[in-house]
Amino acid sequence: MLEKLGSALKTGIDRIASAIFVDKKLIESIIKDIQRALIESDVNVALVKELSDEIRRTASSESIKGVDKKEQIIKLLHDKILEIIGGEKKELELNKKGNRIMLIGLYGSGKTTNVNRLAYYYSKRGLKTAVLGLDVHRPAAQDQLEQLSKTSKIPAFIDKKEKDPIKIFKKYKEDLEKYDTIFIDTAGRHDLDEDLVKELKTLNKEIKPTHVLLVIPADIGQIIKRQTQEFRKALDISGVIITRMDSSAKGGGALSACSETGTPVYFITTGEKLHDIETFNPESFVSRILGMGDLEALIEKVRSAVDESSQKKTMKRLEEGKLNMLDIYEQVKAMQSMGSLSKLTSLIPGFSKAKIPEELIGSQEEKIKKWKNIIDSMTKEEIENPELLDNQKERINRIARGSGAAISEVKSLLKQYQLIKDFTKGGAGSLEGLESGQLSQKQIQKIARKFGKKIRL
């Protein structure tokens, strides 16, 4: 995501920080690199010129001396990039009940997918959510929403036969009142034509949404500015969701264009999975493109992927020393749903700077997939009581064949399970010691013995 811009900024900051003298030649060289990166990221040329001029002014100022000048230039770079992509974080404020959030946009922007994603996102944050399908024009829009809602286990209200969106809304109006927040999918067009404007205005008047979110793909770049302005003429837009931020070199243009129109970006999406949506925090975003990680986004991903009730059950079994393969399975499944390891490591401060070979990250992802396949190939009895597999060659061979894994890989997973189980046999006392940081000498020795063994992740 905006890798060239991040690389240029990091290089520029490092050169300024390590320079003995901040002279004109150094500044012009850094400005040229940053200009190229910003323009390649599709940021408005006028904004690029403004940033360049401010860097020159600060560098040539006689009132700022020595180290202070370096700090001023670095701070200016950070602050201006932050300003270009949106400044302060804007939160989508929801009530505890009665939220009706309508998503609008042109064809192919990702409305249907993100209606479901948002419903799932907020359901994980304590709201009772549902989705309503009012796109009656696009073929299979209702089918898509139905399939997505089955995956996320979010209730979907659709009517595949009715072609009047107002009638669909009225049909389910009473049922929808039972939910805290409703996310509403609407029709799109290839352009914001008269028919689409009329339909959206009619829906807006009837539904009275608490928020209207415009969904726009990042790969259209600065055109977002025109689209946002046109949609704002038709409706009172609360904010924007920018999709495809993972695949677009034009992400900088999309973000800066929204900032120029004064429309807050509430969410960005960075992949195809259910959890690949995050609240947009400009400060964290700048931190990420500078290679400093983004813990807030990482915590959001974990929170969306992890089932709280399932985690409580796992913790209870850990405290009782009753861990089984199902617990391992749940953890592996949650890891997979959060996305690729390379994407996750980019969010961890310090990891993006560490030179972790791509092939190593890839091998760990393959191992996680294999572990899931191995557990899927076990019987319910074996999952609940993995000790049944001890020295049982036939069972292990069957699992290996069913999962497409080598026998050694099945045995490796069983060893990891046994290692974790041995460590948790101390019960609640051991866990409390870990949580409080007050481990006894005996506990420390036990950990050393356990983890002194060769662990293969």
Tell me what the structure shows.
With 457 residues, this protein is an alpha/beta fold. It has three domains: 3-85, SRP54, nucleotide-binding domain (Four Helix Bundle (Hemerythrin (Met), subunit A), Up-down Bundle), CATH 1.20.120; 99-302, Rossmann fold, CATH 3.40.50.300; 319-451, Signal recognition particle, SRP54 subunit, M-domain (434 Repressor (Amino-terminal Domain)). The protein has helices at residues 3-18, 24-40, 45-60, 66-85, 111-123, 141-152, 165-176, 194-207, 223-234, 251-261, 282-289, 295-305, 308-320, 325-337, 341-345, 358-376, 380-384, 393-403, 407-424, 428-436, 441-451, and strands at 99-104, 129-133, 156-157, 181-185, 211-217, 239-243, 265-269, 277-279. The chain has an eight-stranded mixed sheet with strand order 3-2-4-1-5-6-7-8, with helices on both faces. The radius of gyration is 26 Å and the shape is flat.
Key features of this structure:
457 residues, Rossmann fold, flat, alpha/beta, 21 helices
- Strand percent estimate: 5-15%
Q: First CA to last CA: what distance?
A: 28 Å
Uncertain parts: 347-354, 427-439, 450-457
Helical content stands at: 55-70%
Can you list the strand order of the major beta sheet?
A: 3-2-4-1-5-6-7-8
| Number of beta strands | 8
Query: How many domain regions?
Result: 3
Q: Tell me, rounded to a whole number, the average pLDDT.
A: 78
Shape: flat
Instruction: Please tally the helical runs, counting DSSP H or I stretches of 4 or more residues.
Output: 21
**CATH classification class of the largest domain:** Alpha Beta
CATH architecture of the largest domain: 3-Layer(aba) Sandwich
Structural class: alpha/beta
CATH superfamily of the largest domain: P-loop containing nucleotide triphosphate hydrolases
CATH topology of the largest domain: Rossmann fold
Main sheet record:
8 strands, mixed
The Rg value, from CA coordinates, equals 26 Å
Order of helices and strands: HHHHEHEHEHEHEHEHEEHHHHHHHHHHH
